[in-house]
Amino acid sequence: MSDSKVRVRIAPSPSGYLHVGTARTAIFNYLYARHHGGKFLVRIEDTDVERSDPALVYNILEALNKLGLVSDEEIILQSQRKDIYSAVAHQILESGHGYCCFCTPEQLEASREKARAEKRPPRYDRRCLKHTEEDCANKIAEGVPFAIRIRIPEGETTYTDMVAGELKRQNTEIEDFIIARSDGSATYNLAVVVDDHQMKISHVIRGNDHITNTFKQIHIYKALGYEQPKFGHVPLLLRPDKKKISKRLGDKDVAEYLNEGILPEAMFNYLCTLGWSSKTEREIYTVKELIEIFDSANFNSANAIFDEEKLIAFNKQHIMKKPTIELAPIVSELFKDKLGPDNGNMAANSEYLLRVIDSLKERVRKLTDFVSLGAYFFKDEFDYDQEAAEKQFNSENAVFLAELAERFEKLSEFSKETAEAELDKLADEKGLKRGKLIHPTRLAVSGMSVGPGLFVLLELVGQKRVVTRIRKAVDFINSNM
Ligand code: GLU
Predict the structure, then answer these.
(1) Residue 142 φ/ψ region, left for φ over 0, alpha for ψ in the -120 to 50 degree band, beta for the rest
(2) Of 226, 196, 227, which Cα lies nearest the Cα of 210?
(3) Of all atoms in ligand 1, which is nearest to the CA of residue 22?
(4) Burial class for 94, CB neighbours closer than 10 Å (0-12, 13-18, 19+)
(5) pLDDT tens digits for range 104-161
(6) How far does the centroid of ligand 1 lie from the alpha carbon of residue 267, in Å?
(7) Of 11, 366, 462, 470, which sits most exposed with the smallest number of CB within 10 A?
(8) SS in 3 state form for 344-397?
């Protein structure tokens, strides 16, 4: 298959939001397509009406889009293709590769129960295989409901997995599974094969929980005489406690992480390391770089751990790397959301905002930290960090702070250099260590005990506001001591 024929897909079922595992598999497919100059497609597997919610389709697509995982062709919705699946199910039946099953749900359950009691795997016992063509026609004419099963031939099934290598299964382990239910609806395995064939999918890269389905699907391909795609089953993502990732255990979906301040490119980069490796020491890559180096020989087969702390560490690196000008529109929105839209200094093109971002960029772990660590740049009202206030706010420091405000006010030019020189001068005159003045000053001007270098902070907040804030802190100390 030439590179240009590479066509891959991600096929989320809209029974939940975009799971990090699905996003990871989408990323692998996307990188495989882009690396080979092929196409990346999206298909929504919404045939299970009970579990599929149309509102979730939108959320899944939105989260995929934010990660840059946009379908190269029209998105396929399985719910709109029922007639196509039904026709193919009948084609399998008529070709002799399938047969009608008239067993009732009660009969099937009883035989499963018996198998369990006898400690056998609960596989279909093929009792409907005995019906002659005439029997079947009569029952159908009488209106007896029936499902269509595929008939699995004797022997064994093998295929070469892109990740796991050669895999083999005895056909006795693959039951004659249902491809169309008695209400006419297609089962998952039939719909997937029909779609992958019609979408000309060349490589099916998906989670290794689908290996059992692959052995079934191969028989559908064979029954229909379709060319099989290459299959690659990538490891599942697990929680640090090795359990499956689950909403019920409090695990977040992709949109939640992005809303909480994870950059899409950091999410993309981190997820890419779960089940695949660049085989180098380097961890931080741009999407463009990943497209270049993505080699399917470097998939791992061991299950991978999704660790939120590691994701945040990737995020920190990506934030530091991202040009301030590109962070500005995102951070601007975050400030406006939290503090109100009216402050012109928060605008994405404001010089002041760019400087605020620069001052905090090395410290934030999430985008939302810009707001929690930097609200005082825009807002004069804030509380003092309680622990720091207990340490730094006392009557002795109030005297120094009052003196410092006085001196700052008199400076004809207020910059980080002049502010620093003035603070140093005061410390010298009073025989104090710089720290003795620096800590209470920071607390007075920002309400916090951590942040950018104090003098950068002072220059940014500006002379007038610095003086006002220091005096306000002095009043606070005096009225609380
Ligand atoms: N809808 C399936 C899932 O969400 C994907 C099936 C496939 O990739 O073939 O797990």
Answers:
(1) alpha
(2) 196
(3) 4
(4) exposed
(5) 999 999 998 988 899 988 889 999 999 998 999 999 999 999 999 999 999 999 999 9
(6) 21
(7) 462
(8) HHHCCCCHHHHHHHHHHCCCCCCCCHHHHHHHHHCCCCCCCCHHHHHHHCCHHH
